[in-house]
From TrEMBL:
Protein name: Ribosomal RNA small subunit methyltransferase I
CDD domains: RsmI_like
Origin species: Rhodoferax lacus
SUPFAM superfamilies: Tetrapyrrole methylase
One Pfam family in the UniProt entry: TP_methylase
Length: 264
């Protein structure tokens, strides 16, 4: 992944802070909840004071800042906010392997400005891009401060009844049916052997297809949990062994973000 040739200076006593700013989980959902339903006032107040951002998507970040501005006055008008988007390569390939040098994005912090890192929903750098920016901040001596807000993976795990002492988030399972079924069986084998809960997600329009593959591929006594629409008024969390799932009226729609978990 290519980056500009400009090399940032090292941190100084006047270096700003990189805040990891969570976003509500209603992005892309039909229902938009009041921010104070899931976001602490302290987080929103800090976010309102930031005018330099590294973001996943500038358009959704501006929409979020508009919502924040309805509760706390923004330090600068939205059109004057400085937004830098992570490159598309980071979205497609991920930025957790060290292949992307994000230091150039942090020039404002080196100049003394408070900065925010934000994704479209939940905590940046957790099941979302941003880890390269956090890593670069540490390498440059910039203080990193995670702010409080919703993290769908942990909410789903807490509601699953599965092992919360040992768990792994494995991202997306393959879209191709045969590869998806094989991956699910591999994750199940690991979960049953070690007791480690396996957590994964899917693009919402594949929710129903993934659920059907899970019910067809998992052993009857494996526990399957789903958490849909977390923090929304229509949130649903279900957990049972597979043989019982097949006799319950639980269904997923293909528009609501869902977290899937399996274990014993």
């Amino acid at each position: 992944m290519s980056t500009p040739d400009t090399k940032p200076a090292t941190a100084s006593a006047a270096t700003g802070t990189l805040h990891l700013v969570p976003a509500p989980l209603d992005f892309g959902c039909a229902e938009v909840m009041p921010l104070d339903a899931s976001m602490p006032r302290a987080t929103l107040e800090i976010a309102a004071g930031i005018s330099h951002w590294v973001c996943e998507n500038a358009k959704s970040t501006r929409a979020y800042l508009k919502r924040i501005g309805e509760t706390f006055p923004l330090s600068l008008p939205i059109q004057s906010q400085q937004l830098q988007e992570l490159p598309r390569e980071v979205h497609k390939k991920g930025d957790h392997t060290g292949g992307f040098d994000a230091r150039y994005l942090l020039q404002p912090a080196l100049q003394g400005h408070a900065m925010g890192l934000i994704s479209e929903a939940g905590m940046p750098a957790v099941a979302d891009p941003g880890s390269s920016v956090v890593r670069a901040a540490h390498d440059l001596g910039i203080a990193v401060v995670p702010l409080v807000g919703p993290v769908s993976l942990l909410l789903a795990l807490a509601a699953s009844g599965l092992n919360g002492q040992s768990f792994a988030f494995v991202g997306y399972v393959p879209a191709a049916p045969a590869e998806r079924a094989q991956k699910i069986r591999e994750l199940e084998s690991l979960a049953l052997k070690t007791g480690q809960t396996q957590i994964f997600i899917e693009t919402p329009y594949r929710n129903t297809a993934l659920l059907q593959t899970l019910l067809q591929s998992l052993q009857h006594n494996t526990r399957l949990a789903t958490a849909s629409g977390l923090t929304l008024s229509n949130a649903q969390c279900h957990s049972d062994v597979v043989k019982n799932w097949k006799h319950k009226p639980w269904a997923l729609d293909n528009s609501t973000p869902t977290v899937f978990s399996i274990g014993r």
